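ok so dumb question maybe but i'm new to this and my supervisor (M.) told me to 'just get the structure for Acetyl-S-ACP:malonate ACP transferase' and walked off. so i did the thing. is this what she meant?? sequence i used:
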Amino acid sequence: MNATDIPEKRWDTLARSRDARLARAGHLASGCIVPADRIVPLLEALIEPGDRVCIEGNNQKQADFLARSLVKTDPSRLRDLHLVQSVLALPEHIDLIERGQVSRIDFSFSGPQAARLARLVESRKIAIGAIHTYLELFARYFVDLTPRVALIAAQAADREGNLYTGPNTEDTPAIVEATTFKGGIVIAQVNQIVDKLPRVDIPADWVDYVVQAPTPHYIEPLFTRDPAQITEIQVLMGMIAIKGLYAEYGIKRLNHGIGFDTAAIELLLPTYAADLGLKGKICTHWALNPHPTLIPAIEAGFVESVHSFGSEVGMERYTAARPDIFFTGADGSMRSNRAFCQAAGHYACDLFIGSTLQIDLQGNSSTATKGRIAGFGGAPNMGADARGRRHASPAWLRAGREGRGDIAMPRGQKLVVQIVETFREHMEPAFVERLDAWDLAATANMDLPPVMIYGEDLTHIITEEGIANLLLCRTPQEREQAIRGVAGYTPVGMVRDTRMVENLRDRGIIRRPEDMGIRKSDATRDLLAARSVKDLVHASGGLYDPPRQFRNW
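this is what came out, is it supposed to look like this??
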């Protein structure tokens, strides 16, 4: 074969495919604006079998109209799709699988669809590529999981296609940048089309089509916790966290996971922590969504800065009125960015604390349990030591000394804490000999069991029984007994080696509340800075506007 026989290599197949798709759909739009009643034929014109599709579904903001429209497409035309998206939150996400239009998914969190997804996996109707962390999935958007078509959501668009995302920017920049600059197609649903936007979050030449949805996109108030539901056990665990951990390490930069356990800590800052003289010494800089339960601590002057993954329903006026605390745009509204905040939580924070559903005797934890594939969201990035970190802080250095002892090259370590009651809902023990994740991996033919936080990254466990400092354990046997020692009356806790556990207590590896000068009788709800959602509204000076389901007055 000579040179003239070699077929000419084309280097613009993605661009040619994109042009062909846009040509097929051109008659359905006026410029970039698509009427809502033409969105289904537009999707059928743009999406091809086997495409990798991202339906923007974050923790909160959902491209719900576009998801519903995708379910209305012809399954014989749109089939064998590969969904790559942060959250499978809407019923329509699972409907697409049940209709046979999706053959593979890569995601981070499934939340309310966890049980339906588990049933589909068990019946082998869907293949899971992997359950990622948010940051990991964003990274793969730029390597081998680049969307061919992205369906996103924004607050508003102008007639040229510029987008305003408002306080819920979340995943949008990462999705759009990966899709647009690799020859993909971006379709945005917006709540309104206006002549002039308050600010431009996504430029028009990164967006192909805009459709005004019949109803505003759905936003989940995921981070609202009613203080009325915080128990006295959670108050006790919050006191242990503040006095036994935050104060001792001088934790200033941190991230809290979602849940009532961490909400209790936030509400104890202006009361219990203030009485301990910790104002200005702990919890000053956060990577955190604008939790309503953080309002009293902000108003009390505990908090200096908060960067957020997303916003929270009802917090818009409050965050806009506190620009010294929250990152805000020139228009006055908060700017969130999940990718940047994940990076901040991973590299710039000294502590992550969150809850889980199961912990094994090596300290591995998972929220994937039998009949429920919830995923992890951002917890694995927050809950992992950042080995690329090169800046020091007192808390990071102390944790490094405790965990590594005297080594030639000094290095710190991030504090990763699981805070759990020994029994969770329906008296299911939080501590287990073997994670359900192993069975799930076998059922779903996954290469790895879906572990949220690996035991090697876990530094402390807090329960109502006390705190276990795993950094100080010198053998695997000590580590196992430290975990059993705070596992209470669970089957795991009941077979602890009593003498070894008492030895660990003598060495300060296990500490009970009384060892830290905490009286259990003091752990009452009276310590909470707000005991109801109404109290949070008052603390905000009337700026917090809670969703209807949290109002009982």
